[in-house]
Specification:
The structure holds two protein chains of two kinds. By secondary structure, chain A is mainly α. Helix content of chain A is 76%, strand content 0%. Chain B is of the alpha/beta class. In chain B, helix 2 packs parallel to helix 3. The chains are: A mainly alpha, B alpha/beta. Chains A and B meet through helix 8 and helix 10 of A and helix 2 of B. Chain B: GO terms for molecular function: ATP binding; ATP hydrolysis activity.
């Protein structure tokens, strides 16, 4: 102690603290990485394929977005922040707050938000959106200060509450994206950009497809007094009606703004309905397990070659009947 | 009436239920008691048709599950679904329409709020309200009293009595013997997947004494509390 002196000990203590902090961050992110890998492996896809698919998908979305609209920078930031905000769930954050000190908690949350926002920066810089590139990491770090309570006294009203649950829950979770799609549709009409309008239509379709990504708790299927056919018919009918309801605020201005493109717009609407049916049936074709490689391959095939839907939908329907039978008819 | 014969269920090597035979009569409340892991929930899930099993389950209905209300020990609720929407979903699953839901809000729950924001007890009360409004003939209530406040416990006890009077078949489980003995007409003791004993009201005290003897034994003495 004498040899080191007071300053020496302080430096050593500080280095130790620094090591602890770095180690904690390292351990935390290694754990997050393991959790992500396990989640991907549970989907039945090899890790390398998952990472390649995620990377290519990200590049494709980036490319399409910047090629199609002048507002791509803003949308891109919105997309990044909507992803970042998913880390702000109250349960997750309550756990982190209870586990780590206040300071460490902010460090972890700000770091993970920045890591999530990072992949979006190169494209923003490449396309000259310097201000947005500066604002994004700042906003991402600031979001660490917020906790998004799914619970609470405010309940977002939806027209879908009478027939829960996919659209009611999904709309409440993704209302910002739906709002963005509506905004884009009006912008498309305003600036006379049909492609942007078509993109907004597709965006809302993708958002609705995401409502069917995860299987529900088996109780929510078991509770139905219906045969698998009746159950699926009801689900498909509700899906079609609700999608139509969510699409109308996009379709009407687009049809009014681009009357010469009516056939294309209705074609996109009908095609999206078919994709939604495929997404719904893909969920139940794997039920009660989560969708994995076979469903992913079939949906991927349908995206690249839409006529394949004509074969994929009946196939997924037959598989869904088979998977739902034990829960609805009790034929385990 | 629901009759179970030689019901067995295993998870890999673990035998969860081993040749369970029971009969549940209309207009009677049947309790299933047993410690954690005894197989109560597995038994209920098998009756509900949520688990594959060996053995037979007979009932007067072509499909028992269409007439069965199942209160799970830990009901699951979607995030961003209100209490009212949950009740309407459960009613619509049985093709029931509910008019005047406000007056049927037995426990005074905040039905306009997200169900996932409810406390444990409120979740249980919401799930119970939903299955009561389904107007089922057979009700399985897995731990209906746990996590619920005293006032609501009184309501649940009264509800069970009314269900009995309406000639429904009610099957309930609890870790708390006193709760079961208050509402049940008969209680079966389940241990390690086997029915050890079934007793009517007159045999409840001896059943409780046996439960205590077997469960507690000399374990507390061995703890040498000071």
């Amino acid at each position: 102690m004498v040899l080191l002196g007071n300053r020496g000990w302080q430096a050593l203590f500080s280095a130790g603290q620094q090591f602890k902090k770095t180690q904690l961050l390292k351990d935390y992110f290694l754990l997050q990485h393991s959790m992500l890998n396990r989640r991907l492996l549970e989907m039945g896809i090899p890790l390398w394929a998952s990472y390649v698919a995620i990377g290519l998908g990200f590049l494709a979305v980036t490319g399409i977005l910047f090629a199609k609209t002048a507002l791509a920078g803003y949308l891109y930031v919105l997309l990044a922040l909507s992803l970042v905000s998913r880390l702000g769930g109250s349960e997750r954050n309550d756990f982190l707050r209870a586990t780590f000190s206040r300071r460490r908690y902010w460090q972890l949350r700000a770091s993970e938000n920045l890591i999530c926002a990072l992949p979006f920066l190169p494209a923003l810089l490449h396309h000259g959106c310097y201000l947005l590139a500066l604002a994004l990491p700042l906003a991402a770090a600031a979001l660490a200060l917020l906790r998004f309570r799914a619970v609470g006294s405010f309940v977002l009203p939806t027209p879908f509450g009478r027939q829960p649950f996919e659209f009611a829950a999904g709309f409440r979770q993704n209302f910002l994206l739906v709002g963005a799609a509506y905004f884009l549709a009006f912008m498309a009409v305003g600036v006379g950009n049909f492609n942007l309008g078509a993109f907004s239509q597709l965006l809302v379709g993708f958002v609705c497809m995401s409502f069917y990504a995860k299987p529900e708790n088996e109780y929510y299927v078991w509770a139905f007094r219906a045969t698998p056919r009746q159950f699926l018919y009801r689900k498909l009918k509700t899906c079609g009606l609700h999608f139509t309801a969510i699409s109308v605020p996009i379709l009407i201005p687009l049809l009014a703004g681009f009357p010469e493109q009516t056939t294309v717009l209705l074609g996109i609407y009908l095609l999206t309905l078919l994709y939604l049916a495929a997404a719904l049936l893909a969920k139940y074709s794997a039920y009660p397990a989560a969708q994995s490689l076979p469903q992913g391959v079939l949906l991927g095939l349908a995206f690249f070659f839409p006529p394949a839907l004509l074969g994929i939908i009946p196939f997924l329907y037959a598989k869904s009947i088979e998977k739902l039978n034990p829960f609805l008819n009790g034929t385990h | 009436m629901v009759r179970i014969e030689q019901l067995s269920k295993s998870y890999g090597r673990k035998q969860a239920l081993d040749g369970v035979s029971l009969s549940f009569q209309k207009g009677r409340v049947h309790g299933v008691a047993g410690e954690n892991g005894a197989g109560k929930t597995t038994l209920f899930r098998c009756i509900a048709g949520l688990e594959p099993y060996t053995g037979t389950i007979h009932s007067e209905y072509d499909s028992l599950k269409g007439h069965l209300g199942f209160l799970q020990a830990e009901p699951f609720f979607f995030p961003r679904i209100t209490g009212e929407e949950y009740i309407r979903l459960m009613a619509s699953a049985r093709q029931k329409k509910i008019a005047g839901l406000e007056s049927k809000n037995l426990f005074g729950l905040p039905l306009g709020q997200y169900a996932s924001s409810y406390s444990t007890g409120m979740k249980k009360k919401l799930a119970l309200t939903a299955i009561l409004l389904q107007e089922n003939e057979v009700l399985i209530l897995d731990e209906p009293f746990s996590g619920v406040d005293i006032q609501s416990n009184l309501v649940i006890v009264e509800v069970i009595s009314r269900l009995r009077a309406l000639n429904k078949t009610v099957i309930i489980s609890s870790h708390i013997f006193a709760a079961l003995s208050e509402v049940c007409d008969e209680i079966s003791l389940l241990r390690s997947g086997r029915i050890l004993q079934t007793a009517g009201r007159s045999g409840f005290s001896s059943l409780e004494a046996e439960m205590k003897a077997v469960t507690i034994g000399s374990r507390i003495d061995q703890l040498e509390l000071k």
